[in-house]
Structure prediction request, 119 residues.
Amino acid sequence: MSIEWKVEAHSLGESLAHDFQLGLIVDDSGQRLLTEELLANLNGLRIEIFSNEHPPPHFRVHYAGETANFTIMDCAKLNGGLKKWERNIRSWHSKNKATLIETWDRTRPSNCPVGPFRT
Prediction:
């Protein structure tokens, strides 16, 4: 008979989820492979910035089975769905643009063809 161990303490689960969000650890020194920056994940909503991307600087929103990409500069939709949520996304963008820029700049690898955000 095997015994299954489950994490009952909520903070332990949160700690592991946070560690996963920091990226995959690829060696014993703690070096991480960070391929995308997950800004939010709430009830199926995901907002992402990918670390090695094409221009222009942009972020991706996933919600209710749809995905769309928006520019960081002015929240113009590049492609995808989420039409009925565009006003919500633009409102959110106006309050969080500085965080998007900081995240974009922080996650650029040295060989990224796009480089840091420029106005």
About this structure: The chain has a mean pLDDT of 76.
